[in-house]
Each structure stands twice: as structure tokens, then as C-alpha cells.
Specification:
CATH class of the largest domain: Alpha Beta
Number of helices: 11
Structural class: alpha+beta
Largest sheet: 8 strands, parallel
CATH architecture of the largest domain: 3-Layer(aba) Sandwich
Strand content: 25-35%
Helix content: 10-25%
Distance between the termini: 73 Å
Radius of gyration: 32 Å
CATH topology of the largest domain: Rossmann fold
Shape: elongated
């Protein structure tokens, strides 16, 4: 989903977070905020036993159709002489009317901005898949061909969005057949539905639907492009956005209903309304009610504020906010009391309509929602008996909590969705206390330590560096005592340290006891920055007064936990006196050395050179110089 600030009709702002697109905040000519556009359309719901025809005649409206959605909603058209607000007020006074509201308009809220899984394509790799640990979660599923998956009752995931490019190689072969990639997600083109009038398809934003569906179901293992999060799924493509990226509440309500009736276990809604709609709420309640409830995953919105956004802000939906590659809140993302979890939303790489093929969005929660929908599909594929409520609870309780705001909070919800942890929930093998020694300056390896536990006995362990699931980033760990099989194992191992290694790398350690447990995170720090020596000051020494002089300085180091230093004072006669210190705790703070004149009783007066040397734990050196006068 992308950024959008405008209000259209009754202010239904669609969350499309992708690169190219429609200028955010545009309002159609003639639109009046608050739902009072003359000649507009209205949704009216009736109680049992009411007379809808009489109500429509009294208001002067023409019934277009009854929605294929719960709540007995009629979609009516108004003559140009009647503002929608007046018609709604008249309906609400009529006996038997349950509710009346504008058929609010929506727009795509856009902010411009397999080899790609681990290696940058066009400058960006699938960091988002690594962040949610999807490649580790995939290892829980057997390798199957496309036809084997299709014949094994794949999980149905409905995508309510714009048109999806059926010609993209990561979705289909020539002729529109399902992808035959070994790990490729599937799209059921025969089940696609459209609520978009042919006359409004010009310029259809296929890029938005293609991008969202790519995050969910792009073919994996086909040596091309990216890998979809939910490869064991079958996508139902429901086109609800027209050529300008707009839709209506009535369309959203009908599409949610249609997806549920089609048997979708998960419904992805990367769009939304800035005002509530009872019609959409009715459809949402029906779709998420047991038995046969679907999990509706919706984008939280891109207005960078705490305003509600619908359907995400309804309790029946799972609201997904956005994060960036550093794990901070994505700059475009909404945040409020309805947020469930967070997922990647900034600089995310996914598919684009051919021939563009790939695109990176700048920012949008439209990208965040399909990450969560994809993890939900994996959980259903793992255990078909799981209900929608159980899947949601599992995703929330296994999310990676942000360190700055422990527990639930409105900016991250329960945390960043973690596919591996969700898939491995309840596994008996666990890891903890993941740590790495800061290596010496010229070292080529550093030591990893961790603790693994299992009542079955731990029999193997491994660590991934920065890229969970990438075989080239995997290194074996061994028991410190040399023997596997204990219920608690102290693990040790080494990872390489190259001259171009980043200063901080993320470690993912997991243990095996007959099955892999979820990965525990740690960090490896490579320190190549020397300590900082600042605020150097040296007093003038008056020898005849036998005054105790001092040399002071401030020594700090943001990475090492200790440093050592020495001070060399070279007199006018070339004789050097050295003061050295042992290891001292690192961190900002003045460290003082006092120079007592007795060490130079016979030296001549004049300028004395001072050199201050410092080393941190990794052996990075620093030097500062000063001068004092002896008289």
C-alpha cells in the first residue's frame, strides 16, 4: 500500500503502496467531502420485513442491484439534483432501514519510489524475505512439482487488488498455464473475477496487483526473479481496482464475500477506506465467522498517522503496519490501536508487469500485508485443521518484538512477523544466548557461542549469517564438550571475517533434535573503528614551584567494551617518559593522567612533546598529540 492523503466521496482511500502510480490525494472533479456529491451512489441495508422499493421511491433513488454480500444491501443511484448526504438522511428516517451510507470511493495510494532472493537485482535483493525468516520456514515443506501441489489441495488465498499480469514468467508459462517451477506459487486464472467495468480499464494499474501477488506467490526455485512467501498456495485473483486505481465500498464488500464463498482461507486486502463502511463490516464479519472463517489480512494505511483505516481497523481483520530494512517503522505507515503485526513495507522488491518484470517500491503497507498473508498460508498448509483465529494467534505470539517497545505497541503491534518462528512454534529444540566475540583487528574468523536445549537431546546445530536459509551463509556449530546428545548443549563455532564485512551482522542459530527448532537471533560485531581521543589539555609546568601538573583527555569507543592507553612525554633533551595503563572499561568519559615533575629532575626547561596512544579490544590504534612548556 502506498501513501494517500486525499478524500474521495466519503473518503475511501485505497492503500496501494507501490512505485509508479497515481498521484496521491487527487480528488475527482465534482467530489464533495462527506459524501454529498450530487448524482452519487448510496448503499442501503434493510431489516427483515421492510419495503425496499417504497424506500427507494420515497427518496427518489433507482436501485441498481442487491449486493452479493451479507446485510441485504441495495446499491442505488441518485439523480443529480439530490446530494448523497440528503438521500442518506432520508433513508435513515424511513421505517425498516437498517443503515445507509455512501458507496465510498477508493484510490490507489502510491508513492513512487531465483537470483534476487540473495543477490541484488537492480540494486535491491529480497531482504524482506530474510527479515521475516521465510527461507528457513520453507525448509519445513517437501519439494513438490507444481502439478503435485495443485493436486494436493493447495491453500486458497484471495488477492483483492488490481489486475495481475498473467503473462509474467513468474506466474505463468506461455498460454497462461500455471507455473511449473519446482517451488512456484500458483494463480488460478480460471477463478479470476472482475468488478471493473470495461470502460474503466484503460491504464489499469496491473503493476499494483502484480506486485502484491508477487510477494505472495512468485515462483520460487525457477532461477528467475524473486521467491513468493507462500509457494504452497493457490491465488484467486479478484480485480477490484479500476484503471485509475479506484474502487468502492460495495465492490470491496462483494469481493470479500465472493472470496469467502469460493473457499479462500486467507483474503489479502492491500487497500482501504478512511471512513467506516457498515457494508464492508457486514461482509467482513460474515467472512471471518466460524465455521469456515477466513483470515482477512489488511494494510494499515499510508497516511503516517494514527487515524483508523478500514477494513484494517475493524477487529475482525488483521491489520499490518510497515517496517524498513533496519526494523524501524516505515516512514509512510499508519500506526494505531488496531495494529496486529508489522512486515516489510519500504524498498521492497517484487514483480512488475512485463516487460518491466521487477520493481522496488518506495514505501507502502500494500507490500506489508501480503507478507503476513503469505505466512498465514504456510501455517494453513502445515496444518489444515488450524482455524483462522489460531493462525492469527500463532503469528502474533511468534512475532519478533522490537527492542525499543517491548510487548504490544501501536507502531509495531506484536512485532515483525516471523515465518520460521511461527512454523517451528512448539518445536522442542530451542536456542538461546547467541553471542559472538569481537575479533582482533587482523582476524579472519570470529567465534560464535550459543546454548541449545531439547528434552530429546540436541544432535546438530547451525548458524546463518545475515541471510537465514541461504546455503552459502550457513556454518556448522559443534558442542563445546565434543559430544552431541545432551539435553543442554553449549555450542561453539567460527564464521569468517573478511576485510569488507559489515560492522554488524545478524546471526540466526537453530538446533536439531529430529526436527529443526526456530532460529534465535544474535549479532556479530566487527570493530575497525579506533577509539576517539578528544579534549586533550596539558598544563604549563613551573619546576621551581614543584607544582603537580596534569595531562587530561577524553577517551571513548562505541564498539569495544574496554581500551588501554599510554602517554609518552618527550623532554627538550629528547628523553621520553612513558605512563601506561592496563585495560579500562570503554565508553565516554574523561580519563586523566597526572604528570608529576620528579621524573624529570635534570631535564632542561622548554617545550615537551606529548603523545597519547590508545587501543580498543580489537587492537585498533589511535593517537593524539599535544605540547606543554616546562619553565
Amino acid at each position: 500500500m502506498t501513501r494517500f492523503r486525499g478524500a474521495i466521496g466519503a473518503a475511501l482511500a485505497l492503500v496501494a503502496a507501490l512505485s509508479l502510480a497515481v498521484p496521491g490525494g487527487a480528488v475527482p472533479e465534482g467530489a464533495v467531502p462527506g459524501g454529498s456529491t450530487p448524482g452519487g451512489r448510496v448503499l442501503v441495508s434493510f431489516h427483515r420485513g421492510a419495503d425496499p422499493a417504497a424506500a427507494h421511491r420515497a427518496v427518489g433513488a433507482v436501485r441498481l442491484r442487491t449486493l452479493e454480500a451479507p446485510g441485504s444491501w441495495d446499491l442505488v443511484a441518485l439523480p443529480e439534483s439530490i446530494p448523497a448526504a440528503d438521500a442518506i438522511a432520508a433513508y435513515r428516517r424511513f421505517p425498516g432501514v437498517r443503515s445507509a451510507e455512501p458507496d465510498a470511493a477508493a484510490r490507489a495510494a502510491a508513492e513512487p519510489g531465483d537470483p534476487c532472493l540473495w543477490t541484488p537485482c537492480g540494486g535491491t535483493a529480497q531482504w524482506n524475505a530474510s527479515m521475516i525468516e521465510a527461507p528457513l520456514a520453507w525448509q519445513a515443506f517437501p519439494t513438490m512439482t507444481a502439478q503435485e501441489r495443485l493436486s494436493s489441495d493447495p491453500v486458497l488465498v484471495a488477492v483483492l487488488d488490481s489486475r495481475i499480469d498473467a503473462t509474467h514468467p513468474d506466474f505463468a508459462n506461455a498460454g497462461g498455464s500455471s507455473s511449473d517451477a519446482t517451488f512456484g506459487g500458483q494463480i488460478d486464472w480460471s477463478a479470476q473475477r472482475s468488478w471493473v467495468e470495461p470502460s474503466k480499464r484503460a491504464g489499469t494499474l496491473a503493476w499494483h496487483g502484480t506486485f502484491v501477488a508477487g510477494i505472495l506467490a512468485a515462483a520460487a526455485g525457477n532461477d528467475a526473479d524473486i521467491a513468493g512467501i507462500a509457494y504452497p498456495s493457490l491465488i484467486l485473483p479478484y480485480e477490484v481496482l479500476d484503471g485509475s486505481g479506484s474502487t468502492t465500498a460495495s465492490t470491496v464488500a462483494e469481493a470479500i464475500t465472493a472470496a469467502h464463498r469460493a473457499g479462500a482461507r486467507i483474503i489479502n486486502v492491500s487497500l482501504g477506506l478512511s471512513e467506516p463502511s457498515q457494508a464492508v463490516r457486514d461482509a467482513l464479519i460474515a467472512a471471518t465467522s466460524e465455521p469456515g472463517a477466513a483470515l482477512v489480512v489488511a494494510a494499515a494505511g499510508n497516511n503516517t498517522d494514527d487515524e483508523p483505516f478500514y477494513p484494517a481497523s475493524y477487529p475482525e481483520a488483521m491489520s499490518v503496519t510497515g517496517v524498513d530494512a533496519a526494523g524501524g517503522r516505515a516512514s509512510c505507515s499508519n500506526y494505531n490501536d488496531n495494529v496486529s503485526v508489522a512486515a516489510p513495507a519500504r524498498n521492497v522488491l517484487s514483480l512488475a508487469p512485463m516487460p518491466t518484470r521487477l520493481r522496488t517500491i518506495d514505501c507502502g503497507t500494500s507490500a506489508a500485508a501480503p507478507h503476513v498473508a503469505g505466512v498465514a498460508a504456510l501455517l494453513v498448509a502445515q496444518d489444515r485443521s488450524r482455524t483462522a483465529a489460531q493462525v492469527r494467534s500463532l503469528i502474533e505470539r511468534t512475532a519478533t518484538d522490537d527492542a525499543q517497545h517491548p510487548g504490544w505497541d501501536p507502531r509495531f503491534g506484536h512485532g515483525i512477523v516471523n515465518a520460521d518462528r511461527a512454523i517451528r512454534d512448539g518445536a522442542t529444540a530451542t536456542t538461546e544466548s547467541v553471542d559472538a566475540a569481537v575479533p582482533p583487528r587482523d582476524a579472519t574468523t570470529t567465534t560464535i557461542t550459543a546454548v541449545a536445549r531439547s528434552p530429546k537431546g540436541v544432535s546438530a546445530a547451525e548458524v546463518y549469517v545475515d541471510a537465514p536459509g541461504n546455503p552459502s551463509a550457513r556454518f556448522a556449530l559443534r558442542p563445546a564438550d565434543g559430544a552431541w546428545g545432551d539435553q543442554t548443549e553449549d555450542l561453539v563455532g567460527e564464521i569468517p571475517v573478511a576485510s569488507d564485512s559489515p560492522p554488524v551482522r545478524t546471526l540466526y542459530v537453530r538446533a536439531w533434535d529430529g526436527a529443526w527448532g526456530g532460529a534465535a537471533r544474535g549479532a556479530a560485531v566487527t570493530d575497525r573503528e579506533p577509539p576517539r581521543i578528544t579534549n586533550v589539555r596539558a598544563d604549563t609546568v613551573v619546576r621551581v614551584q614543584a607544582k603537580r601538573a596534569s595531562i587530561t583527555f577524553t577517551l571513548s569507543d562505541d564498539t569495544s567494551d574496554w581500551f588501554a592507553y599510554s602517554v609518552d612525554v618527550t623532554g627538550a633533551d629528547g628523553v621520553t617518559v612513558v605512563w601506561a595503563s592496563g585495560p579500562r572499561q570503554s565508553g565516554p568519559g574523561a580519563q586523566s593522567v597526572y604528570w608529576d615533575p620528579p621524573p624529570l629532575p635534570s631535564g632542561p626547561p622548554g617545550p615537551h612533546r606529548i603523545e597519547i596512544w590508545a587501543w580498543d579490544r580489537s587492537g585498533n590504534p589511535a593517537i593524539a598529540t599535544a605540547q606543554t612548556i616546562v619553565v
